[in-house]
Amino acid sequence: MRSSLSHLSGLTVDVLVIGAGINGASAAQHLAAAGHDVLLVDKADFGAGATARSSRLLHCGLRYLAPGRSITEFLVRPDRLLTALRMARQAMAARAELVRTVPERVTAMRFCFPVYRDGPYRPWQIDAAFGILAGLGSGGRIPLDYERLSAEVALARPLLRALRDPDRLEAVACFREYQIDWPERLCLDAVLDAERCGARVRNYTSAALLGSCPEGWQVRLVDTLGSEPPVHVTARRVLNLAGTGIDAVTRTVAPDARRRVVGTKGAHLLVRLPPDCAGTGIAALSRRGEPFYCIPWRGLHFFGPTETLYDGDPHDVRVTPDEAAFLLAEARHLLPGCHLGPDSVVASWAGVRPLTYDPALPLGRRSRELHDLAADGLPGIFALTAGPVMSHRSAGRLLARTAARGLVPRRPAQAVRYAGPAVAQDPTRRGQCPGTPCAPAELRRVVEREHAATLADILFRRMGAAWGEPLGEREIATVAAAVGDALGWDAAARQAAIAAYTNEVASLFASPFAVSSPRPPLLVSPAPDPLSIPAGTAALSQGDRP
């Protein structure tokens, strides 16, 4: 369970990691495995920010080789081609590593890229792009299974038969893509492995830099749940991985520090398509010339993302009616044969990407960048921007190497364990064999061992059950009853927890088209038995939007 904040009072650590999104968790995991004394904190729950709100693609890097308007952009700017090749290589490497090491956390799907006669790309250019990707990923041995279908063949297949302008469709490029269905679980896996290796981890704990000292940096920690008094710790190194809050953390001690991060918002709509469309997705361009996806997910599909500037609270970001109208219009334009309308929308979500600030690029740069803040008078403090979910392991290794320079390990090194605990495959337990451990015991386990403090922590990030179809009131109440004793909840506290969860889901994830509904839908399906909620769902990549 969550340890008392007072246990950290006066502590001195090698590295303090501020921000327990997936990159912060990975950095803490690799540092702790190397034998360093690590403290990982986050002002909210582990993985609750950008990590949880991504487009979940573990993509192959095609979009880097398809710049949006025309391939001639690479001829005019060869430096962009070199950057694209580097990023595509990183994408293929991350794809291969995750598929090989945690196959239970990813799922394969068939992705399709329609090529129109009046579009920006010719079929041979798509062939060449996949040839390059295959070469870049030759050491990964995770095939792309690329094939180019004629328009006639493509239009006979489910989902593709709903494409717009069939008379102008020249071909459809099909390939194997992967998805991280549940990126928060990958983040939590890294957090728990960091803890196994000796790291101290604490969610709902904000960190404020107070100033330098002979040992490094003095930091004030505050319990954001409000139940404990603040404490002070000292860190020899600090990794500022607070997402879009990076600049705010830095400027507490360096008000004139340069800006490092810009937030862009990505919105998504979750819809129900015909069952024969399951497992098939589409990568396309919106009418704005931006990447636009239809992605299969848990028996449903989602469309998105948008890309607009956002400087608000990343934990309180939601899809607006205007964004929902845009996404639905683009979905209808891409797939007119699906006859999508407001009543097709099951739910929505939005997230904020912490991209690299560049005054020449209003929406920031997508290239991952490590910042040494010594240039701002903050030696020993480092930050990372634009780190996608899918490449979190390479980011964690880079951050660990950087922060560990000059530090002597406190313990013998250990091997990193990427695989997390097994989770149930069936969110309703339908069809499972007798003797399966009862759900209440599993729920209590996630509270006792995985630092959960709220129902959202449990239902979204520990179980993954809250993503997908709406949960019924009975299931939510059952979970609250099962974990109430472990969390010290009496009857009133349980009701307050249920109300807080219901309000959060209705506010942040309900369909924007259902605002007139007397009770906005929740986000997971009713089960036939009140004890049928499992301790996890299949974890099938922020990834992010590629």
What would you note in describing this structure?
The chain is 29% helix and 23% strand. It is of the alpha+beta class. Among the domains are: 5-51 and 184-261 and 360-404, FAD/NAD(P)-binding domain, CATH 3.50.50.60; 89-178, no CATH class; 424-540, no CATH class. A hairpin with a 2-residue loop joins strand 16 and strand 17. It is globular and about 70 Å long. The two termini are 35 Å apart.
Average predicted local confidence, pLDDT: 88
Please report the first level of CATH classification, the CATH class of one domain. Answer: Alpha Beta
> What percentage of the residues does DSSP assign to strands (E)?
15-25%
**CATH topology type of one domain:** FAD/NAD(P)-binding domain
CATH structural architecture of one domain: 3-Layer(bba) Sandwich
What key attributes describe this structure?
546 residues; alpha+beta; FAD/NAD(P)-binding domain; 29% helix; globular; G3P_DH_FAD-dep; FAD/NAD-bd_sf
Set out the fold topology:
Elements: E1 12-18, H1 22-33, E2 38-41, E3 57-58, H2 62-65, H3 72-76, H4 78-101, E4 107-116, H5 123-136, E5 147-150, H6 151-154, E6 169-179, H7 183-196, E7 200-202, E8 205-213, E9 216-223, E10 231-240, H8 246-250, E11 261-271, E12 280-285, E13 291-297, E14 300-304, E15 308-309, H9 321-334, E16 345-358, E17 361-365, E18 369-372, E19 381-385, H10 392-404, H11 439-449, H12 455-462, H13 473-487, H14 491-508
Parallel strand pairs: 1-2, 1-10, 2-7, 4-12, 10-19
Antiparallel strand pairs: 3-6, 4-6, 5-6, 8-9, 9-10, 11-14, 11-15, 11-16, 12-13, 13-14, 16-17, 18-19
